[in-house]
Amino acid sequence: MENVGPNSVQSAQVERVLIEQNYNNKKRKTKREKKKEEKKKEDAKKDKKMIKKHFQIVDRMLKRHSKQVKIQVEKEMQRRKEVTKMGRKQKKKLEKEMNKNETKKDKDYTKKNNMKSTDNDKEGHKDEKKIEKTKEFKKTEDKKSVRSRIVAFFRSLSCFKT
């Protein structure tokens, strides 16, 4: 205890004050750090909640979308089945028509072969009738054509109206 004067007492007091300030500063720093950590944890919790909500929304949207896609796929499959059924029906109809046409052709061909002999007899008779009809038609046509020419002439003249 050499220095027991007023300076030593003052220096001891200054040291004590510095130590207290240092101690208080450390306390403040730890409090600040704790508050920062707590704030980070709260922000992390909030972010976690937001992400969770976002994922829930995305899940709901995916479920709805997958349902819609399933429905679309089912509708498309049904449409394809109907189209194939219609295609089969149309093929059958075409085949039936082709068969009918072939049978008609066969029937017509056989009829023609059978009828050729009778047609020759009928043709001669038909030719005679045609010749007579054309002669009569020419006579009546000549009379009509003269009359129609006269009427056309008068129509061409604007002062006469029939």
UniProtKB/TrEMBL annotation:
UniProt superkingdom: Eukaryota
Basic residues bias (residue ranges): 25-34
Region (Disordered): 1-141
Composition skew (Basic and acidic residues), residue ranges: 35-46, 72-85, 94-111, 118-141
Biased composition annotated in UniProt, kind: Polar residues: 1-13
UniProt name for this protein: Uncharacterized protein
Organism per entry: Mytilus galloprovincialis
